[in-house]
Each structure stands twice: as structure tokens, then as C-alpha cells.
Amino acid sequence: MEELLQWMEYIEDVRQERKVRHLLKDILVIVLFATLANADDWVEIALFGQIYQNYLRKYIELKNGPPSHDTIRRVMGMISPDILQQLYGKWQELLNREEGKTLKKIICIDGKTMRSNKQGNGKPSHIVSAWSREDGFGIGQKAVDEKSNEITAIPELLEKLQVKGQIITIDAMGTQMAIAEKIREKRADYVLALKGNQGMLYGEVKEYFADEELRKKIESAGNYKKTKEKAHGQIETREYYQTEDIRWMPQKNDWKGLKSIAMERKRIEKNGKKTEEYRYYISSLKGDIETLSRAVRGHWSIESMHWHLDVTFREDANATIDKVSAQNLNIIRKWSLSILKMMELTKKNLSMKKKRFVISLLPIKYLEEVLEF
Predict the structure, then answer these.
(1) How many independent structural domains does the chain possess?
(2) pLDDT for residue 367 is more than 70
(3) How many CB atoms lie within 10 A of CB 294?
(4) Does 63 lie in the same domain as 51?
(5) Mean pLDDT, residues 78-98
(6) CA 293, CA 185: separation in Å to the nearest integer?
(7) Which of 17, 121, 129, 210 is spaced 20 to 30 A from 307 at the CA atom?
(8) Does any domain span residue 166?
(9) Where are the beta strands (DSSP E) in 93-176?
(10) What is the reported pTM?
(11) Which is nearest to 255 in space by CA: 168, 182, 188?
């Protein structure tokens, strides 16, 4: 954490120096710590700084006392989200610097609308995030005006990321030829979901896997996997099929690096009722059912992250209108979520929401232990 505090000092402060009463580093530390300690809006964040100012002075200056909520909000609207994302990334690098190389990481890309971030007839920000499933960590994001702009935002986001050798997963909206080409340009692999919006491609892949004889051939070739899980009062059975048999596909040459197609069949049994779901994919991966199934199953991690932003951090209830401030808070929440996942506060297995509540009871004690001051 001491190294991280040093990095904060390198963030450019665009404010007029003669008018600055509170250091940028001081404000960032207060916002991060307060968010971990169950503060969700600017007033609560400022109250945290006031109540714990004496202890915080061990690490930050606070030469003019703790900043007001208006000052915190205004300053957070001046910091470039790209710079704050880099700081978040530096923290992750410091954590991982002793680790050796591991298996290919799953990088999930998806968008989330910040529903309260609008004024009048204006549109709320829509944040497209790249989330590392293995690290539980956001590696980048791009803000757009609405969900339909994800298609143009994803290539721009990929351009900023170091994803060589990793696997990119994207839902059906992002299954575009240009996006597949960009992923291959970045020397990464892709697993892209198919739905009805893909028209003929979706229909052809669906029809292929509907053939029982073809599925049996895939099983005998070893490109099949079956899992069974019990959770939340239901039994989930998942079957994965992958094949490199794509010579018959009219569009195979339109998708850069396309090597295989896949299907996931999920059956749910609950209270005597059974339901089935089918999902289809195109991929640059060759036949490797373990890797393919890990990528398909791993995409849930970004959906889980979005769920936590709403449930654990109450993001959709936060009425921050300023777009930059809202983006920066989004990064702080993801950062906090990454920290919370590492924290063991009691012998019980607590939810992220309850971890924040526990920290709010004795915030400095737990923050000091986890952040290793």
C-alpha cells in the first residue's frame, strides 16, 4: 500500500495550484477506504473522512482538515478515468508480481448501464468493462451513451488492453466480424456467443448441433464435457460440445481466425420441474473442450460483478449526474470489490455486502490488516 500511495502522487492534478486546499492523493484514499466501509454517496464518504481523520493522518496529509462532500465530488469529476484505471491496474500488478505464469486467462467483456446517471431527458452512461475472471479484477473500461454503442466501444477498449495469449468472451451483441478481427490482431483468442441477431449463422450452428449423430461423433472424439452441480435447491447439468468441423459453413472465412463452433446445453431440475437452455458459440480455439467450457462458464464472472455493483454497492441508486465522477466511482467500486474478495473478516463465509457492513463497524482495523499498512 505504501507503494500505491507513492503512485498516487504521480497523478496529474488539473486544478489551479493556488486554489488547492486538499491533496488529490488524500481525496482518493478517503474515497477508496470509505467505499470499502459501506459509504455509497458523497456525503457518506465525507463523513468517513471526518470521523477517521485523526487515524488517516498517519498516511495522508489532510493539511486543511477533511474535504467536504462537494469538494470530493468536484475533484472526482476532474480525474481522468483512464488514469484512475491505471492506478487500479498498478495495484493489481503489485499483488501479482511474485506470481509465475498461469493458464490462459479469461477476459470477459460486457456492458452495464448506470441507470441513475442521467438528467432530464439525457441518457445515462453505459460502461463497457473488461473483467479478468481469474483475478477478479477490472483491466479496463470504456464509457458510451447507450447500450447500442457497445459495438463501436469494444474495439476501442481492446486497443488499450494487453490481452496477448488470453481468451476474450463476449455476449451476442459483441459478436461482430470487426471485433473478432481486432481480437486476433491483439493476438488473443475469442469465444463469442451467438443468438438470433446473427441470423443465418445462428440458425446454421443451431441446426448442426441438433443432429444427434453429429453430437455422438463429437463425444467419441473427446470434445464433450458434462458437469453436474447442486446449488440453491436445484440441480444444474451442463453439457458442452465443441467441433472443428466447420468446412461446411458458408461464412467461415468472414470470421478472422475461426477454428471451431460449440454448444452448451443446460438442464435445471427444481421442485420436480425440468427446463433446458441451449447456447451456441463461435471460437478461434481449436478442439480443447476443457478450455472452451472454462471460457463459456467463466463469462458469468462479469455478470456477477455487475450484480455486485447494484446489490453490494447500490450503484443504480447513486444519482451522480457528472459523467466523469460516475465513471470514477464505478472504477472505485470494482477496485473495492476486488479487495473484498480477498478479505476474511470472520470465520463465517460472508457475502460482499455483509463484509462491507463488518468493515463499517471497525473500518480502520480491517483496512489496515488487509491493505498491509
Answers:
(1) 3
(2) no
(3) 20
(4) yes
(5) 84
(6) 24
(7) 121
(8) yes
(9) 106-113, 126-132, 137-144, 167-170
(10) 0.87
(11) 182
